[in-house]
Amino acid sequence: MDLSALNPADLAFSLIIAATPLLFAALGELVVEKSGVLNLGVEGMMILGAIGGFATAYGSGSLALAALAGAGSGALLAALFAIMTQYLMSNQVATGLALTLFGLGVAALVGQGYAGQTLQVSTRLDIPGLTDIPVIGRLLFGHDPLVYLSLAATALVWWFLNRSRAGLILRAVGENHEAAHAIGYPVRLVRVCAILFGGAMAGLGGAYLAVVQTPLWVEGMTAGRGWIALAIVVFAAWRPWRALLGAYVFGGVTIIQLNLQALGVAIESQYLSMAPYLVTILVLVVISADRARARLDAPACLGKPFYASS
After folding, report:
1. What count of Cα atoms within 13 Å lies in the side-chain half-sphere of residue 239?
2. What are the b/e assignments for 31-69, b being 16+ CB within 10 Å?
3. Alpha-carbon distance 160 to 190, whole Å?
4. E strands, the chain, where?
5. What is the rounded distance in angstroms from the CA atom of residue 279 to the CA atom of residue 127?
6. DSSP code at position 3
């Protein structure tokens, strides 16, 4: 194995790209869970966003339209989740799992005509004079617009949750929905808006995966990234900046295992492919070991249904 073949700048560039879809999905789920809703349908929303974004990019050649289509596809499935859990009062865990399977099935059906197709979409955002700076120019200024959008979204979500009145109301609903309802806050409306935002962000992450990171359509291409996004939210203790760190850590694990496979490391490729998911499980086990801290970090009403008294 020749480690000199690894270029640190290329690794860092690839890490950022691998982390971006995870960051979009994790930020969306973080807001959903802050409202007290547990949405396990992130994987299904990501894969719908992936096929929606890919199909749009394939027909239009536009990254912006692909991103909007991906976000819309994810939000559409999220709307179904919101109706079922907030108005029909179905179980949140069971509904999320069912919609994950539903999303995977719909994406496989719609994507039959795109199997093996590749995209030729211009995604790189070149800034004259800055992109050409050795090493840091490409790392800081040579990415596509959605990378910068993901970083801006992290800051905006932090500001929304910690500095805005609407964010305070959302957190109040997630901590004690009965008290929030008693003082006149529209609990269901707040949660529906949070769910739609979470679905749109998951769909946007899926679109990024299919259009930018891996510009071709393969059935099941999200490959568990929705579940990793859920783990990142727990790892981040429901804090946006820690979600950014978590996305880059898990994205780094993915890139490392891919590069080790390319270098021909004397380990079965199946074991290397397992690495990101093994790390996810280990992180969750370590975090869950401190139950008292986990209870303090998590929104108090997470996963609990709200039955309006009037």
Report:
1. 10
2. bbbbbbbbbbbbbbbbbbbbbbbbbbbbeeeebebbbbb
3. 13
4. none
5. 36
6. G
